Amino acid sequence: MDHTEPSATTTTDNNPTQNPILQVDYSWRKWTASITEQSNPCSPLYTVHYRPLAISPHIIYKSTSNPPTTIGSGTLHCFSINSTYTLHSQPGTLKALKRWKTSYTHLSPTYTDPNPPHQPLPLTWTSDSDFKTWDFICLGPDKLPIAKFSANLWKLKRIG
Q1: By C-alpha distance, which of 150, 110, 158, 104 is closest to 8?
Q2: Closest C-alpha among 32, 4, 37 to residue 19
Q3: Residue 41, number of CB atoms within 10 A of its CB
Q4: Digits of tens for pLDDT over the chain (160 positions)?
Q5: pTM of the full predicted structure?
Q6: What residues does 140 pair with on adjacent strands?
């Protein structure tokens, strides 16, 4: 049940020649994902370990540097639609904006207010889907897209 084809891609703006396109390969058997550049799929940049039965955290992101270092983690909560995360030792909350629609917001330390005291700005993730793909789009504070994650729902190569 391993997934061997690229299942998702992400880019940081509409000009793919400037920014790398990343792809995520998920393994159902191992509950892991590797994140690679689309131009070099044999050399993972990050690994993601899913631990659905763990108390906390449920998701751990690691760089593939030598030695591997944990860059972030995330926790899903049973009775809340919000989740918490830690990225580079900075805690945060991924807050659901609506209950029956995929729309989340978080404060980004990467995008800050240009005026002092340089507070983090809110970024919003929304989604759109059709029969084959599920697109997650990150909107900046000005509601313009700054990143996109596309998951192909029918990319499983081997089942059973």
Answers
A1: 150
A2: 37
A3: 12
A4: 344 334 444 444 444 456 788 888 888 788 899 999 988 888 999 999 999 888 889 999 999 988 989 999 999 888 888 999 999 999 999 999 988 888 999 998 888 888 888 888 999 999 888 888 888 999 999 999 999 888 876 765 544 3
A5: 0.72
A6: none
CB proximity list for 69: less than 8 A, separation 6 or greater = 62, 63
**Closest by CA position to 141, among listed 117, 118, 112, 99:** 112
What number of other Cβ atoms are within 10 A of residue 134's Cβ?
15
Q: What's the CA gap between 91 and 84, in Å, rounded?
A: 7
Other C-beta atoms closer than 10 Å to the C-beta of 135 total 14
Q: CB within 8 A of 3, min separation 6: which ones?
A: 25, 26, 27, 28, 155, 156, 157
